[in-house]
Amino acid sequence: MLRSFVFVVLCLCVASGEESCDRREMENTICSLCSQRRGGQLLESGHQVAFFVYMSQNIQINAISKYMTFVYDRVETNVGNGYDVRSGNFTAPENGIYVFHTSTTSFDKSHCMVEVVKNGQIKDITWADSMSHDDRAVASSMTILSLTKGDIVLVRAGVQRGGNYLESNQYTRMSFSGFKLA
Ligand SMILES: *[C@@H]1O[C@H](CO)[C@@H](O)[C@H](O)[C@H]1NC(C)=O
After folding, report:
1. Which end of the chain is more exposed for a tag (fewer CB within 10 A), N or C?
2. 38-70 tens-digit pLDDT
């Protein structure tokens, strides 16, 4: 629409021998068209990345080994396809600053360390611990990481764990989520 308007204005200018055309107005129109185009390119290069996944059932602690990756099997959101439900790995689809969150609930006389790991390095750690009493203990983490395309972030069990199970059901969910901030 604007483009054809500019074309018509340009044609009129050429036809009428410039003087009748307001040069400043024409420049303004062209400038605004150029910035619109640049804005569009910015939007195209900055893709959205966001995921939210959780466990579909409780996880028995005796089935968890040291440094075992938690494979959150229920995928609610996976914009940008960074989360792989087979391995539990999140692979950064592009460079950027990312925010990750975990929530883990230990149930009645249970505990488990939970680590957020980037390319094999521990970046954050938390400990859901209700080992000495009957009740739930909810542990969460929020971790802001600068990632390069291809970096892998995952959540795994730490060294210390024991007891019954980590809970994920209609009362609480064991989840892993993240998004690209910038
Ligand atoms: C998942 O990440 C781990 C640790 O970085 C890596 O060893 C493994 O190959 C990855 N698996 C897949 C399927 O990408």
Report:
1. N
2. 444 444 456 899 999 999 999 999 999 999 999
CA-nearest residue, atom 13 of ligand 1: 87
Residues with CB under 6 A from ligand 1: 84, 87, 89, 119-120, 152, 154
Query: How much distance in Å is there from the Cα of 89 to the middle of ligand 1?
Result: 6
Which top CATH class is 50-180?
A: mainly beta
pTM over 0.70: yes
What type of residue sits at position 62? N
Where do the structural domains in the chain lie, given as residue ranges?
Answer: 2-45, 50-180
